[in-house]
Amino acid sequence: MEGLPKWRQNEAQSITLFLVLLKPLCSQTVDMTPLFISTALLLPLRSLAQQASSSWRKPNITTSRDDRVSVAEAAIEKALVFIDATNGQFSDPGDSYGLGGTLYSQLAEFDLATNQTKYADVLQRYFLAAGESLGQYEVVNFTGDYFGIISPQLCVSGGSGFNTVHRNYGHAAALAYTTYKIPAFLQYAEQVWWAVNSYTLSQKEVDAGTLLLKSFALKSTCSGITMAGGTFRPFGRREITTTPDMNAAATGGFLVLSALLAEATHNIMYLSAAKASADFLQAHLLNVQNVVQDTISGRANDSCALLQKTVEASYNSGIMIEGLAILYSITGNTSLYDQIGKMVTAGIPYSGWQSQNGIIANGATKSGDMFFVRALATVNARNAATPALQSYISAYLAVQFNAVIDLATTKGSNIYANSWVGPPSLSFAPGNQTNAIQVLIGAINSDNVTTPSTAPSGSVPSPSASNFSPLSPPPPHKSSSHVGTIVGGTLGGLALLGILVGILLWRRCRAQQDRDMAIQQPHSPEAPRINPFDLGYRLMADL
């Protein structure tokens, strides 16, 4: 087994141990058949739900890492051509200022993924220019009608369907600080945090029933659970005091920003805020299918029913998953780990935002989604899932990468379409471009995230080696290899075969024992019987 990942070695050793344990069992009159049969059936089913679908389009990345870096960099450089250096914005910043923040975040993430500082100076200039120029659009502390955190806006695109627009300055500043350790970026991130915190309910405000920025009485609980931790979504400065909506995008964005700041500063205030946001999302916006819904009212006497949009969007789940993954890497809390697993397993095959080919396609325009992609990449980078689930995620991310480079662009143009299922576009749009850039960046270190970690698939791996690093460092350059997958599948088959052989050996041993007892000890009392379900629980827990 030399050369195999440690978790595969552990799995093989577990099978060996299982067979060794058969010998002492043969000396007892114990009916273990139900246990063995159930174990044989459950082991292969454990990972069945986390295997790439045969209908997925191209779930493997064959492009070299150097080429992936080049493709991502070319897409970024194309976007930068359309940035006005005097204000750090795309054209018409009154409508698109949030997209500038999205690109800022991606500049820092690209440098972090490639272990360089290429865009550090550019980001300092752009943040300074943006902060000075956006006041005319009622943007203060990088927040305006839509927060400077992660707040997707659904708007009509071409008369029908939806296109996701992103507001991302807080995330960009926090990530830039993590990447470059330049204090100004931390100050920008904290400015956004304090601005959004004023829209977020604390338990004290819930108990008082009032929030300074709202003109109505607050709802204290829904289903007996506090509304603390929820963030109100502003629809505009004129409606800021009357809007009762608390949505997943605003609350999830505050969760991510708080978690990033907790990681960067080790300040318990940010960690507590992140936990409160996560608790609110799980209690009030996560449905029984482990899919995040859109909105709930925070106004007293309003219904606790969810105000779900007619078209479910992947970004709601994506933002929450990203926040939980960062929280897990800080705290190592196994309940967060379990919830991440449930949400990822539910979200990847969810038909509400994709077809059978596995390509994300939200709404009538079949828009891609950078938030769900970034969330899954964060889960893998922070080791917040089992090796089996990480492999499942990697295959899904490969589908998105291949769709973006094959179907959403014309070769050599470096311009990307809104829909990742095609057709490509030769017309540049900031939202389309930044959406695709996130996929390209997420694929840069795919060699790293597709390699199983050292933990066995049934246990909770430790958070990534550096609890305060949102992305793993780039891996050594190497060609793709599926040997581990092939060997792993072989071992899985051998494991099942070993269990079946074990059952036959035990039954043979049992038959021999019965004959011996009939001859030598015809009147011996019955040996104590073992509860197979109790033992089965312990064995499965060990596995």
TrEMBL record:
The keyword Transmembrane applies. Residues 451-470 have a biased composition (Low complexity). Keywords: Hydrolase, Membrane, Signal, Transmembrane, Transmembrane helix. The chain crosses the membrane at residues 483-506. Residues 451-483 are annotated as: Disordered. InterPro entries: 6-hairpin_glycosidase_sf (IPR008928), Glyco_hydro_76 (IPR005198), MUG_Protein (IPR053169). It comes from the Eukaryota. GO terms for biological process: carbohydrate metabolic process. Residues 1-27 form the signal peptide. One of its GO terms (molecular function) is hydrolase activity. This is Glycoside hydrolase family 76 protein.
